[in-house]
Amino acid sequence: MKTVLFVGAGRHQRRAIRRAKELGLRVGAIDRNPDAPGLAEADVAETVDFVDVPAAVEAARRIGPEGVLTVSSDRAVPVVAAIARELGLPGIGLETAHLATNKPAMRRRLAEAGVPQPRFAAVRTHADALAAVEEIGLPAVLKPADSAGQRGLSLVRSADEVEARLDDALAESQGGEAILERFHEGVEVNCLAVARGGDVSVLTLSDRRRPDGSGFGVCLVHVFPTTVASEAAAEVARVAAAAVRAIGLADSVAYPQVLVSADGVRLVEIAARVPAGLMDEVSRLGIGVDLVEIALRQALGESVSEEMVRPRLRQPLAIRFLTAEPGPLPTGTVRSVDGFEHVLAAPGVVAAESYLVPGETIRPVRVDGDRRGYVIALGETGDEALACAEAAASLIEVEVE
């Protein structure tokens, strides 16, 4: 029996760990949190802070996997690459892992490859930030160079806002660096792709809908298929595939995010992993392609056939995350949660989960962690599926102090 090691074992990884066991694999997992839900699911688990790469490598040696991967965790991608190199396992390589997780390095490589993207500038000091404003213009998006989950991200419309938010962005960066990118209005499109031997298959395009205001970077809703026109969708797929090739992904699941604006299509960023936010469910339910199985096979160095990436169906769906306004949840300290059985039984709903527990605080949406559950619904169209998901989400009854 082959062993596969998951770096990171949180809520999102737990589903993938279960899938690996269904496929007959022995599963190892490491996470710094001893209560991480995926650790309890694994056959062998160690509590290791994988930010400490040498410690993660030594834990991997003890577990002895034939493959290593992460699901959902951007910060784990370079660690996975380091473990693969040290143990002689299949992997994407250290350079590609760096390009996929360091936004300035990613931007520079995309520029070299001619991939359309917003103007950008890397910043480390307030002087850098003010110079960047002059160079790229406003409004702009300020974010850490090497973080994820919308931590430290803000939309800035003046030089004063840039100065006020810069320290927050730098604090979320392991390398003490941030990036300022020109902001463009438009439709955000999530792309799911698989690279096999350097060939790129773009599998799905779905709308990524977000709020305005301080939590503008957080995805509230996925809608599949995308609502952008066919010509724009074709350009999105082209740009997404070009970005996958530009950062050197040869055998990997990839997650490009693309912005469709009135003046063109631009690459927002790209991840070299099965994405978080239930995007693997968009592929599984929407087209019948199992991204987790593909990622597991690639981690083990096994071939992925054309049949595995070929869509088997086309089912419109929507994923509605449970959040405070503009979602259905109130803000405050949770006293009780009721009515979830009505959510699960609502028309069109195929899956739903609540992470809410009494005593926790529901906050206004700022980061991905403020999403406290989800509803997945199917429909004849994406809009119909979204209406079902919204209606079901409204049935949850949360009492707060």
Write up this protein.
The chain is of the alpha+beta class and 401 residues long. The chain has helices spanning 11-22, 37-41, 53-63, 77-87, 94-101, 103-113, 126-136, 159-171, 230-246, 279-287, 291-299, 306-309, 340-344, 382-393; strands at residues 3-7, 26-31, 44-47, 67-69, 120-123, 140-144, 154-156, 178-182, 187-196, 199-209, 221-224, 252-261, 264-271, 317-321, 332-338, 349-354, 361-362, 373-378, 397-400. The protein folds into four domains: 3-89, Rossmann fold (3-Layer(aba) Sandwich), CATH 3.40.50; 119-182, Dna Ligase, domain 1 (2-Layer Sandwich), CATH 3.30.1490; 185-309, D-amino Acid Aminotransferase, Chain A, domain 1 (2-Layer Sandwich); 317-400, Aldehyde Oxidoreductase, domain 3 (Alpha-Beta Complex), CATH 3.90.1170.50. It is 34% helix and 27% strand. The strands form four sheets. An eight-stranded antiparallel beta sheet has the order 13-12-9-10-11-14-18-16, with helices on both faces. A four-stranded parallel beta sheet has the order 3-2-1-4, sandwiched between helices. Strand 1 (3-7), helix 1 and strand 2 (26-31) form a beta-alpha-beta unit.
